[in-house]
Amino acid sequence: MSKGTPSMGKRQKNTHIVCRRCGRKSFHARHKVCASCGFGNSKRIRKYSWVTKKPKIPTH
Fold first, then answer.
1. 14-45 maps to which CATH number?
2. Is the entire prediction scored with pTM above 0.85?
3. pLDDT tens across 12-51, in order?
4. CB-based burial of residue 23 (10 Å sphere; 0-12 exposed, 13-18 middle, 19+ buried)?
């Protein structure tokens, strides 16, 4: 068994499907949890401050 190009041809299944809550293709079909909004894991929407870009504040 080689680990290069022939192995890549076996990747045909979708790991992530469309999420019911956020509509993004981030819902893990096997784990039943959305990587984007956290649906299936918590009632609250998954959000972190490090995801959003901070506004550029002039320093001079």
1. 2.20.25.30
2. no
3. 999 999 999 999 999 999 999 999 999 999 999 999 999 9
4. exposed
